[in-house]
């Protein structure tokens, strides 16, 4: 199994502390081998990082409290944990990849699928956290050690689903760090609330969000960057890799890696052949496609972006419930969860 399933409950600080304790045994070794952490170290103590923290604390005080708890659980300075959670806002390219797909089926079911691509060191060292909060719906999320949940794949008990793709924007604007925004989406109860949050708060980094909800027939593709926000209603099918492709945003300066370009071209070709009768098996086959030198399923030690697929998620969204299935690289479903049910 490429992750461990863990349940957590409490207030914001307590949840953050529990997440930190989960990561504490490997965090030092993880960072010591991370090229991203090495690139971030010159930013320690920089006034711009302090400003990003101030913007996060002012706009999202509940999420800031989770970050403080995370630092406490990790036994790391909050400044270093903030720095780690601002990596995509400071660096033009980080080891966070991913491919997402979305589909509306003929019977009204909405499907969202996602490959979580990241540092190969993390394969088998991440968690699927099932979090119950005192003041929010609670959520399920794939959790990277030391990072706020939400920037991978997840869903909350209000039936809101989110998957995230890294965008390697070359712009830096003072604003709310992108991982704080992604975490805050999992506290929303509707698509409109989530898209308003993404549109209205200032952004210091770039993410692509695929969004769906039990209470809304739409599927949403949102490219959120320091320079612009583009929110599209997905028609029947969609695929997205790791660069901006919306008309309103694709002209911005960005890093487009060869892997991202190849995966975008390949996933576009696959989803163009889908119909409303397409189902979860086709979606999983697309995410585990190995055609080409730089395939969608990424398992090569020499991947040019330094990323491997850590887990694959398929969300089935109906009008009353959400089911999450998480797969390893062999198409085997490790776990199937009813997201709307409270944990025992």
Automatic annotation (TrEMBL):
Stored PANTHER family: BETA-ALANYL-DOPAMINE_CARCININE HYDROLASE, PEPTIDASE C45
InterPro entries for this protein: C45_proenzyme-like, Peptidase_C45, Peptidase_C45_hydrolase
Taxonomic superkingdom: Bacteria
Protein name, as recorded: Peptidase C45 hydrolase domain-containing protein
Residues annotated as domain Peptidase C45 hydrolase: 107-329
A Pfam family recorded for this sequence: AAT
């Amino acid at each position: 199994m490429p992750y461990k399933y863990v349940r957590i409950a409490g207030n914001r600080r307590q949840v953050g502390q529990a997440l930190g304790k989960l990561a504490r045994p490997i965090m030092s070794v993880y960072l010591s081998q991370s090229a991203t952490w090495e690139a971030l170290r010159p930013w320690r103590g920089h006034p711009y990082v302090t400003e990003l923290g101030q913007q996060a604390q002012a706009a999202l005080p509940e999420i800031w409290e989770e970050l403080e708890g995370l630092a406490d659980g990790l036994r790391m300075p909050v400044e270093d944990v903030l720095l780690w959670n601002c990596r995509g806002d400071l660096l033009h390219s980080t080891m966070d990849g991913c491919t997402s797909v979305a589909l509306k089926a003929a019977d009204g079911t909405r499907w969202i699928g996602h490959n979580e691509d990241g540092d190969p060191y993390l394969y088998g060292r991440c968690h699927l956290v099932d979090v119950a909060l005192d003041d929010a719906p609670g959520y399920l999320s794939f959790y990277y050690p030391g990072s706020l949940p939400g920037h991978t794949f997840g869903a909350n008990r209000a039936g809101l689903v989110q998957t995230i793709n890294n965008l390697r924007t070359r712009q830096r604007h003072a604003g709310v760090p992108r991982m704080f925004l992604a975490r805050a989406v999992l506290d929303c109860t509707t698509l409109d609330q989530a898209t308003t949050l993404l549109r209205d708060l200032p952004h210091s980094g770039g993410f692509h969000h695929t969004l769906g909800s039990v209470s809304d027939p739409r599927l949403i593709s949102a490219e959120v960057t320091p320079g612009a926000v583009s929110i599209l209603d997905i028609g029947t099918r969609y695929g997205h890799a790791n660069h901006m492709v919306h008309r309103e945003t694709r002209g911005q300066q960005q890093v487009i890696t060869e892997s991202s370009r190849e995966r975008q071209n390949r996933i576009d070709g696959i989803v163009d052949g889908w119909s409303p009768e397409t189902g979860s098996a086709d979606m999983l086959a697309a995410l585990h496609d190995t055609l080409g030198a730089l395939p969608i399923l990424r398992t090569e030690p020499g991947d040019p972006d330094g990323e491997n697929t850590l887990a694959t998620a398929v969300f089935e969204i109906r009008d009353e419930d959400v089911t999450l299935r998480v797969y390893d690289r062999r198409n085997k479903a490790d776990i199937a969860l009813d997201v709307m049910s409270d944990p025992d």
